[in-house]
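Supplementary Note 3. Input sequence used for the single-chain structure prediction.
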Amino acid sequence: MSLSNQPKAFDYQAAGPGPVVQVFTASGVWKKPPGVNIVRICAWGGGGGGGGGIRNTGASASAGGSGGGGGAKVSMTLPASILPCNVLVTVGTGGSGGAGVTTSVCGNDGGGGGTSSFGCYVAAYGGGRGYKGTSSTSSNSGGGGGGTAGQGNAGGTSTSRGGIPSSLNYWGSATNDNNRNNINGGGAGGSDIGSGGNAEWGGGAGGGVESGKCAYGGGSSIYGGAGGGAGAGLNSSTTWYTGGTGGATNSYTAGATGSFPVTAGRSGVDGVQSVVTLSGSGGGGGNGNYGANAVGGNGGAGGLYGGGGGGGGSVRDTSSGGRGGNGGQGGQGAVIVTSW
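The predicted structure, written as discrete structure tokens, is reproduced below.
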């Protein structure tokens, strides 16, 4: 049958008013618009903050702060008839960046990202905090990415698990290069000897850092917030490194590992918001530094929504004026409700 005999086959006409979009970047109350039939909720957990760097006064190697994990993204469509007239909306804040310190004592941990929720119907969990810079020879992991059912674990001196759904032995566990990645709603795992894991709807993990060696890139996420890159440290001589690159959104490839720097003490690049997913990329890690009154690079802030903050760079300074770089602030979460 020709199209001329089907004049109304594709002759659709929308009935009623257009969709009502309500964007919550702070906690509040959603009020159901009159006459709507369908409600779609998108929620992002807050990104974890990056760890702060140290000022090392000795000749030992040092590590910068590790990156914060990205927040998860959750999308759900519900019939309006099952929802009450008023629903409490909670927006998770981005984790604070850990402050850099002026001593050889460890830096400060970042803060974990908060959970965003739409009543009891939808929840998106935040990324784990980045770990503090150290003057020891330990290797430190970035914060785990947030999941659709649990927050990412904090970064530390061993691997960090992604937020559930994840596994002790696979998918977001970070026990080896294959297992740190995750799919579906699980958060990615953070490695202490490599880049943060990648995720699908969960958040990417923050980049880990090896003392006196590499600062790794943050993990990416196809739909959720990406992890922050690790801050750089120094080896046992006078060589400093660049921070790891923050992870990307709409991607399943982790950010780049840092190398020998062009500019000592340079701050990491702030994350940005994707126009495709509205999720945030991770902030870059700060560069290391060396010399009198040396200051480490600050970690870049995580992008909106839910990007993890980058770690602060560490320095070696035998004078009294040096300071490790501050960790980057995690990107805040959000809840967007569309009704029609």
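Residues 22-340 form one domain. The two ends are 35 Å apart (CA to CA).
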